[in-house]
Every structure is written in structure tokens, then in C-alpha cells.
Design brief:
The complex is a heterodimer of chains A (182) and B (713). Chain A has helices at residues 27-44, 90-93, 96-105, 123-143, and strands at residues 2-4, 75-77, 111-116, 152-156, 175-180. Chain A has 182 residues and is of the alpha+beta class. Chain A has a 4-stranded mixed sheet with strand order 2-5-3-4. In chain A, α1 packs across α3. The longest helix of chain A has 21 residues, at 123-143. Chain A starts with a strand and ends with a strand. Chain B starts with 14 loop residues before the first strand and ends with a strand. The chains are: A alpha+beta (182), B alpha+beta (713).
Amino acid sequence: MYRSISAVLLVLTATSAFAQDDSTLTAEQLAAKFIAQQATRGLVIAPSGDAAPADGATALPADTTYASVDPNAQVNFQIKFAFDSAALAPDEISKLATLCEVIKTSDIAQFKIIGHTDASGADSYNQNLSLLRAEEVKRRLVEDCEVPDTKLVATGVGEAFPIDASDPRADVNRRVEFQVGS
Amino acid sequence: MTESRPSDIFQPGVLLNNTYRIENILGRGGTSEVYKARNDISGRFVAIKALKSEFSGDEGYLTLMRREEEIREIRHDAVVRYSENHRTPSGMIYLVMDYVEGPGLDAKMKQGGMSAPDLVAVCRRVAGGLKVAHDRRIIHRDLSPDNIILRGDIPSEAVIIDFGIAKDANPGAQTIVGNEFAGKYAYAAPEQLSGQTDARSDLYALGALLLATFRGARPDIGANPMEVLKKKALALDTSGVPEPLKSLIDKLTQPDPANRFQSADDLLSAIDHGMDERTVVVPRPKTVVPPPPQPARPTPTPKPVPKPAPTKRGSGGLIAVAAVVVLGLGTAGAYFGGLFNTGPTLPVADPYLLTVEKPETGPVRASGDVPSEAIATALTKAVTDLGGTADLTLATGNINESWGADLLSVVASVAPLESWKVDMTGNDGVVTGITTDPAAHDTVMAALGTALPGSLKGKADITLKPQFLTAEAVDKVLAEQADCGPLEQQDPPALGYGKDDAITVSGHLSSSPKQVQLFDAMSAVAGNRKVSLGITLLNDPLCEIEGTLPEVRSGNFRFDFGFGDRTEDNPSGRYFVGENPTIDLMIPADVTDGFVSVSIIDVSGNVYHVLPNMNRPEDNVATLRNGATGAFLLRVAYPLAENSAKTIAFTVDPATLGKSKVIVVASDKPLFAELRPTTESVGGYAAALKNAAETGDLQIRAIDSRILTSVDK
């Protein structure tokens, strides 16, 4: 492989105090967190418009809207992307293994994969990049881990929801978040 | 021990059927090779006779192997035990038999020979084995000192090996001249030269080989076919051989079969008689010879022939043999027909088999059973007129009277076809053929399409093959085989490929096995046409993109490869680990507008968009040219020293080595509505290309690319 050595492509490790990385949780802990999110969601966050509750039996329409979840309830994976990159490094892919098992065995019908970027770059560019990042994670989960395609919805929200709002350009904001689908 | 050669069917150490491990080769014949092998389970040695690969698919030879397997029906300690035919996964046929440990009579002969009493013991033992074989109508045909083995070096433990029924069907043995001829017939009975073989021929060979082993020297039967014929007509010189061996040999080797022992049984009783009256000099056995088992044979003449002189038929033989040599033909027995005519004592063939064929490649050949010398001669002439060879055995069997004439008419009918095969089993015929000539097809089908002539059953099935192989037919195969972008024919002729036209295919494939598959598939449709493949093998990431890119013409863009640390071209596109490739895109003079997108599809599965990207968004050709005309060089990968926020430089990383592809897509508007990130996965890029092709009104004008290979030092 060619490793681009130009400074602009350098990967920095996220060390922000806001960094919440759930990629080290066990399968049980992750499952519990998703269930808690599902239970509390209706109370905390206004539904995104479509009122139909999930009954788990019928296929759900892809819900690409984003509702911010209480940071404590978020399942954030600090999937690190290099600057201006939508490609996953091999060691980042391995982080997805536990999550994949949880998603595959979960009764929850649909999960959202939400891509975020930092604040560098134009809004429209970041919107696209965040979507590509979410799609890349979805592709890995579907192709490598055989999660059914319909169980995952990839969406990008650009730079609008930084986890470290005090420093919108912080590396920690370049992440992928997982939510229980609507 | 015979040394192994790379060309041998099996090499030492090879394990067959997970059971037999090849130790070494014992001998090579025209159609087969014989190996010593060890049964890995029992530890016992076996001998393995393997049919050469070129004959493994030939029904005629398979039949012969099957017949040889039938030897296993013979249960006698003096006959080597046969097991069964096997087939390797690659289709090689081999026959397993016991391996007999001990010296062959040929080895004893070279050591100076054996004593008369020991040879009488050998004679008695071998006669016992021959009796059982002959009772089952199996004739060895090729007894010689090297296929009689003394198990444990004990004369009374002699074993006959190699009932080489298949060997005479060897096309490789068809040009026998000089000493080779002499070698083949050193121990053969005279009637074998005219293609006639029966039980008494084996008895002749036994007598001849006993004499040679006693003398410790091969018989001198002459240096050329004419001498062989002359000498074979004479009684063998047994002067000096002690009794009773001398009398036994004399009686065994009478030139006229009618004057020999008529059966192995006769021989056995003569030996026992002689043994019982050891003190009596027995010049010749006085036993009354009982009638032989074959009813067709004439009444034997017990009258001894003291000094048989060359008969008048012998002089006729000179002419016939000379003709054979001139024609370059060999063993076909029919040529000697009548020279030593001893009456129609034909063996029975069941099943009665004959194959006459003209393969797609290779000469016409005929092998199998025919009922008379007249038919043998006529068929041999028909086959040699077509440039082929015949190897026929005279035999009687369950066939109709007009069988021969009917068969000849079938062969005459199919002869004009490009390839054909006439396969007879008794009266049942399977006739197939291929031609590109519609008239020839119709003629043969009219003659044989509904029924074979006369008493023969069955009908012909002749395939009319198009004379031209169309480009469409080739495309169909290519579409089935393509797994890494489309495969293309180079300049296919408008009317299709003629029979001598070569077919050239170019494109990409994902692996060497796929390339082999493609070659096989192409060869299957190409017939005799030459197939050449200009295939580049690409790895999975590259193939994924190849499968997505639209098929468009080259725009004559060019990538120039160089090095970041020196002014030097890299025309091979090969870079070592640690090197810093520079890449320039040459935009041709006629490209002055539109947009270009330059990406590197990396062997690791990533795609790097070097132009446009966030830091270098300009992709409009006119803007890039900035007024410059002519061929325009645009740097897309920089030396390390010039690296900045706006540029990209590469070094070759050792983690993943292989082929990467640099690609330029020229289009009438930007390739993607939104800039791609500088780095993304191949999957992401492929999805985006697909999406752009499906949804956009994008016009891709041209695509050009070049492979860059990274290698370890």
C-alpha cells in the first residue's frame, strides 16, 4: 500500500475529555445500553415525525432523520477516520466485531449508523463525508459480518452535532454513532 | 534399475488412491509404463501398469486394459495375480498386479544361462500356468525371458508376468525396422508374423526362450525382416542341449504349429513321461496328440518333420516384407498374410471390438478384431490410403457374415469427413463424425443416417459444424468467463474466424486459475484455431472497479512514472519499498475542455483521489491548462521534498505489495456532484461510480489507466 505521508493525512489519536468510546464495552453492556436507549427515548426526545411505533414484525421505512440522544445514552464508537478520509483502517474494523454480534442477535429491528465530522471544511462537503463514513461502517458490517442490509440505516449529519462543542475541529468529533432505529 | 525420467507418468514417491506409493519404474512400453509400488497399508509390493495419458481417453485402449484385467480370472501360481483397473483423479488409468520378487530369465541368460534340469523345471511350471490361461482362451502372445520371473530364484517357482495384451496395439510400434523388428520377434512363433496366434504360439515361444536361456544368448533371428522370415521357417538348432530338454524344445519349436505339442497339457504329460523314464533316451515324445480344443483347427499331423526347409511361401514373403519396409509400415499382421498360412485357426473375440477413427488431430487409425485376412488387408489399405495405420487382430466372434463388407462400406462413406469414428461391438455400430461441409454432411447422413448398411445395427450421427466461428459465439464464451471487467477479441474477422485464423483475447482476470479456465473454454470453441490470451491479472480491488467502470474508449491520456529523488523515468512502473513514485498525467493536445478525475486504486483496497480533492479541487481542463496548448503535463503525485498541504506524495509501504492502478476519467462535467474525500474504500468508490452512472446525465468521454507495481527489495 502507499501510505500517504503528507501532513494533511496524519491521524491523531483522540484524547479529548469528552471522548466517550463504547468500543471497549462487552456485548452484554452494549446490549443493555441499546435497550435502555429504546426504553427512555420516547420520554426524552420528541419523535421524529412518524408516529408509528416499531412492532418489530414489519419492515421499517428507512429513517434518516437524526435526533440527538442524551450524551449518556449515546452509543458512540470512536471509529477514527483520518482527516478527509472515509476509509476504515484495519485496526478500526476490528473494533466493530463485538458490536456486530450485538446487532445480529438483537431483537431490535433497525439500527441507525450516524456519521459525524469535525468542523473543518464546507458544510455540504462535511455532510457528504459524514454520510460516506456511516456507509463505510455499514458496508463493513454487512459484507464482513453479514448483518442483514435492512437492519442498518446509514446517515450522515455532518459537523452539526460535535461531541466536543467547545472545540468543533477536535478529532474526537470525527466519529460514528449508533442508535436504536425508530 | 531403470532410472526415472521427468516424462514418466508417475514419479517415485507419488501416492495413488491414497494407497500405492510409487517406488520406481520397471519398464516403458509404447502404450504403457510399469512401476513397482508399495501398498502403504499392507506394506506389500505391487506392480502397476499405467496407460499413457494420450491413450487414457481412447476407448480402444481402455478395452484392452479391461481385457488384461480379465487375467485375474486365472488362478495359478505360475501366473502373476492381477487386481483391478483404477483411475486417478486426473483420468490416468492403471492396472494393479502382484510384484514378483526374483530374477527374470533374461537376467539368468545374461549371467551365462541355466542348467538343463533347472530349465525343465521352469518348463513344467510355465506349462502349468499356460494350461490354465489357454483353457480360458487367453494367449500370452509375447512370452520372452524377461517376462518369466523365478520367484525367490527358484526354477520351480517361475511366474509368467505381463500378459501384455495391450502392447501390440501400440501405434509407436508401427515402424519396426532392423534390430527392433528382430527384438520384437526373437521368440515369436513364425505364424505370429502373419498375424495368427493361438495357444501353440505360446508353446513355440516357451521352447525358444528355454533354448536361449540354456545357451545364455539371445537367438540370432536375423538383422532384417527378410532374414527373420527366412530363419523363422527353419527349425531351431538344439545341438548340444542335453535330453530331455532337447526333445522338448525340438517339439515345442516346430515351425509348423501342427507339428508341435498341441496343448500345454500335451507338454505336461510329455515332461512327466520323460521324467518317469529318465534312463530312456526320448528323441521325441511319442504321445498321441489329442485333438486341440478349437474345432476349426485341422487335424494335427503327428508326423515329425526332421528338417523343415524354407517353403515356397517363404520366397513370396521376401517380396511382401520388402514392401512393408518400403512403405514404412510395421506390425500390421495382415501384410504377412498367407505367408505361413496354417489354416483358419482364429481365436474367438468376445466382445468383438473394432474401432476405426480419424481424430480431430492425428492420423487415421484402426484397431481391433477383423474376421479374415481379406478384410484385414482391405481395411488396412483403406486406412493407409488416408495416411493412417492399422493394428488388427484376426478373430472369429459373434458377427454376421457380411460384417466385413458392411464395415468397409461404412468406412468408405465417412472417409471424406474432417473427423469421424466408427466403433463396432459385434454387429452394433456407433458412427459419429464432424464436418464443416454441408454437402458432405448430407451425403453421409443420407447413406448412414437412418441405418447402417447390411447386417450392421445402429446409425450415424454426423455433426455439421459452422465453417466460421463467429465473433458472437466467442463473445458468449468471453462473457461467461469474465470476472474482472469485460474480455475483448482483438480484430475479429467480419465473417467470423476461418479454420486457420488465430483468436486473440485481451482483458483482465482475477486469478491464474481463471486464466486457465478461459483458455480451456476458448480452446473448446476454437477447434484447431490458435488461441492467444493477452490477459493481465488484477487483484480484487482492481477487479471491483473494472467491473464498475463503463466501457469507453481510450482518450490517449498517458501517465508518466518517475522518482521523487532523481530525474529518471520508471517505464516499467515497478517500485521498491521505500521509494517515492511521482506521477504525471499527460493531457493530449486535443483535450482542451471538460473535466478530469484522477484516482489511484491501491492494492490495499483504498482509493486515493488525487484530483480533484478538498485541497486541490480544480478539475476543469481549461482552467488547468490556463491557456497552455499542446500536450499538457499535470503532476498528480509529488516528490517528498515538494510536499505541502495542497499536494500529495506517496512512498511505497511494505504492508501490502502488488498492483495498484492509476486511472483518469474524462467527462463533460465533474465526475461526482460532491467532491469525494481524498481517501475512501474501493467499495465506496465503486458504489459512487455506479450511482453516478445510474442517476446522473454524466457523459464519460474516455478512461485511461496504468498499472503501478510495488515490490519488495
